[in-house]
Design goal:
Helix content is about 30%, strand content about 25%. The protein is built from 3 helices and 5 strands; from the N terminus they run βααββαββ. Strands 1-2-3-5-4 form a 5-stranded antiparallel sheet, with helices on one face.
Length: about 140
């Protein structure tokens, strides 16, 4: 059976650090270290921040799930604002935000989102060989 860690945090900025710490601890407990752990923790921070920032459901909770399938790691972040799907966009050099999904695309082996009956779930897959590879940095960003 694949190790899995699932937890929820309130949709509030002060809980983003808690999510990051829980992801880092789960990965360390599973022996996932180095670049893979760094990339997964960074992207968990980005995806949780997006969920906290853009979810418009009052009193919502954000769910984070990590699953290790052999050498592949899957990170999922869900929130109840199922109709607001994330999309890659080009951010100008003077914009203060909007680069999170470009970072996800650059560091994850693959990523996407899906609508479920009451939530949307954004996921990122990591394989140790692909994480942070130079080829991933050339992922096109939609305008």
């Amino acid at each position: 059976m694949s190790p899995t860690e699932t937890f929820r945090i309130p949709r509030h900025r002060r809980h983003i650090a808690t999510a990051r710490q829980r992801v880092r601890k789960a990965l360390a407990d599973w022996g996932v270290t180095d670049q893979l752990a760094y990339s997964a923790t960074l992207l968990a921070n980005e995806l949780v921040t997006n969920a906290v920032t853009h979810c418009r459901v009052a009193d919502a909770q954000v769910e984070v799930t990590l699953t290790l399938h052999g050498t592949e790691l899957v990170l999922e972040v869900a929130d109840p604002d199922r109709d607001r799907l994330p999309r890659l966009r080009h951010s100008g050099p003077d914009e203060e935000s909007g680069r999170g999904l470009a970072l996800v695309a650059a560091l994850a082996d693959s990523w996407g989102c899906r609508q479920e009956p009451y939530t949307k779930r954004v996921w990122a897959r990591f394989s140790p060989a692909a994480t942070g590879s130079p080829e991933k940095a050339r992922v096109p960003v939609a305008s």
